[in-house]
């Protein structure tokens, strides 16, 4: 994927990985469309970009409202007349034991982490096919590869989006539409603070694991590096890749490690 002059739509753009991708991609002379429910935060980012001479557009929206996402996609396309890539970063995590999690929390996790990106993908693919090109990128998680304590609904939603996008990769193989899944491990963001408890309120506490996680700047740069070569999957974080290796070859050992370390949170 080449970036100069490309129109890139980023969801979850007001914080974390999404926000950092906005700034890093702006340096590559792209045109940015930013979506988040936090309009004020997006407008502050837009002011920063204007100082740098970068063209950007704010498209505030709460992606929990999936029913009208097709209209949102049409509006995003109309801002510049096209979209070359969409990077879906919006999402929410969880910090609660499976048996102590209200069903409504599972519904919220699936709504934002699975159904919303599916709705965007279904709509944007029509635009990509019309132009015979496009890049669809979704930020998943290592939890989309292996289960981990206190994240039953989060892991389920990330496993679900993996299955959906990998199926699209098979269906669109050989076309000019590239689909990429990103699997970050521990990244220093506010994801744990914003995570839902079993009762559906924000946890408000940062995990010790996140505090020692990879910087969001390094994470964003690794994502961009992978997109330059049209990678189908981008894995970020060496310790997490080791855990995945243990899960694959020594599943019982993985369960023991995950139980011991995960429940400390």
Characterise the protein shown here.
By secondary structure, the protein is α/β, with parallel strands linked by helices. Helix content is 49%, strand content 13%. The protein is built from 10 helices and 7 strands. The protein has a 7-stranded parallel sheet with strand order 3-2-1-4-5-6-7, sandwiched between helices. α1 (16-26) packs across α8, α3 packs across α4 (103-131) and α4 runs parallel beside α5. The longest helix has 29 residues, at 103-131.
Short structural description:
With 265 residues, the chain is α/β, with parallel strands linked by helices. Helices cover 49% and strands 13% of the residues.
**Compute the gyration radius: what is it?**
18 Å
Major sheet: order of its strands?
3-2-1-4-5-6-7
What form results from the Cα inertia axes? globular
Count, helices: 10
The poorly predicted ranges are none
- Mean pLDDT over the residues: 95
As a percent range, the share of strand residues is 5-15%
| Total DSSP E strands | 7
Structural class: alpha/beta
Distance between the termini: 39 Å
| Quaternary structure classification | single chain
Helicity range: 40-55%
Q: What is the element string, with H for helices and E for strands?
A: EHEHEHEHEHEHHHEHH
For the report, how would you describe the main beta sheet? Answer: 7 strands, parallel
